[in-house]
What does this fold into?
Amino acid sequence: MPSMLLNLRELHAFEAVIDAGSLSKAAESLHITQPALSRIIRRLEEQLGVVLFERHPYGVALTEFGRRLEPHARLMLSESSRAVQEVDAMRDRPGGVVRFGAVVSALASFVPGVVERLLARLPGVQVVLVEGLSEDLLQQLARGEIDLALAFAVPTSDDITTVSQSEWQEGCHVVTGATHRLCGRRDLRLEDLLGEAWALAPRGTQPRDELKQLYLEHHLPPPQAAVESRSMAALRQLVAGGSFLGWMPRQLVSSLSGTGDGAIRILHLEDARSVRRFALYRRREGTLTPATRALLDELLAYIRTL
It folds into this structure.
């Protein structure tokens, strides 16, 4: 098949049909008629020489060809949008914009210093910081919503790659508020926490899986969450209140240790600690703007010191 340039309008229509699940709903979201949308999709299929959607009475589903095209289409649309945004931003901010996602323990510890050093070098740059769990950040990175991600080391995918992994190890610990009845005790073991109320990240996320594995290794039933949230701010607030146990990295706990009723404390448990490493990620495809490259250099310089 000869090389070709895919039309962004057709890819946008392709994405809209995927997201809507039907031609009628996608046409409504695009403010065009369904026959017009059908013609756009048919042109894309004819250009590629394959069928992208299977039609059925309740909507459409991607064929294997469609599933293969989807990540590339989304990346092309994201890169196109970012290019326009970059040009728009440079009119008001000549240094450019970089969107950087990081886990909360990094944001609460060394990321602010890295950003300050970047802005001292390039005062015209704007940095947009995004907080999230490792899995969420890597998904946002793959979709092109952020430019770099600093997360705990996890397996990479076809969409993202590891730029650097630190040698520094950070441990997660069982934590609670300063007013919790177990706070301050030094004779605790994991089995002593059975039946306690926990505020945790959802199942399937790295922190929750680590805690589950820790309990299983000690032949104990994993804790059930009384409260689940992807918001670390919400979990911190619940734990600090003194009614729940949590599972958090030391860097985050150190930034909230303080004094008073709102402080968070690590419970002294000899058999409850995990070790994780930070890693820096970028998309495999796509370009890095000068602002993003400058931030990447600052992060790499710091990570090598860990």
Residues 64-92 form the longest helix (29 residues).
